[in-house]
Amino acid sequence: MSAGELKLVLTCVPTQSAADSTCGQINGVNHVLQVSQHVLIDSDLLPLFTELTEPFSPVFAAGVFGFFFSTVLTLWVVGKSVGAIIQAVRKF
Predict the structure, then answer these.
(1) 1 with 25, same domain?
(2) Which of 21, 23, 35, 76 could pair with 30 as two cysteines, CB 3.0-4.6 Å apart?
(3) Tens-of-pLDDT digits for all 92 residues of the chain?
(4) Is residue 7 domain-shared with residue 45, that is, in the same domain?
(5) Is 23 exposed, middle or buried, given 0-12, 13-18 or 19+ CB atoms closer than 10 A?
(6) Model's pTM, two decimal places?
(7) Among candidate residues 8, 7, 12, the one with its CA nearest the CA of residue 34
(8) How far apart are CA 2 and CA 40, in angstroms?
(9) Cβ contacts of residue 22 below 8 Å, gap of 6+?
């Protein structure tokens, strides 16, 4: 399944040189043509990529951290209790 196509994209970027101004002047600034490769994604996959690139949420991260921290703490307490029971059985 293809997520998109690799395409050459032409853009006009600002330049300091007046002799190289292949795009002309835009708002009084000389611009030159730049060629770059980009993956253009299909429009039906756009919602998936939008969800993946959402900004970082500290509330969600705190929830994930709290869940895993409490899981590890619970496993430690259970292991400690099982160890105490096994020690008690060994002494008898």
Answers:
(1) yes
(2) 21
(3) 567 788 898 888 888 877 777 787 878 888 888 899 988 888 888 888 787 778 888 999 999 999 999 999 999 999 999 999 999 999 98
(4) yes
(5) middle
(6) 0.44
(7) 12
(8) 11
(9) 12, 31, 32, 33
Q: What are phi and psi of 83, to 5 degrees?
A: -65, -40
- Identify whether residues 60 and 50 lie together within a single domain: no
Q: Which domain holds residue 90?
A: 56-92
Q: SS3 sequence, the chain?
A: CCCEEEEEEEEEEECCCCCCCCCEEECCEEEEEEEEEEEEECHHHHHHHHHHCCCCCHHHHHHHHHHHHHHHHHHHHHHHHHHHHHHHHHHC
5 and 33 in a common domain? yes
Token couple for 68? 């895993």
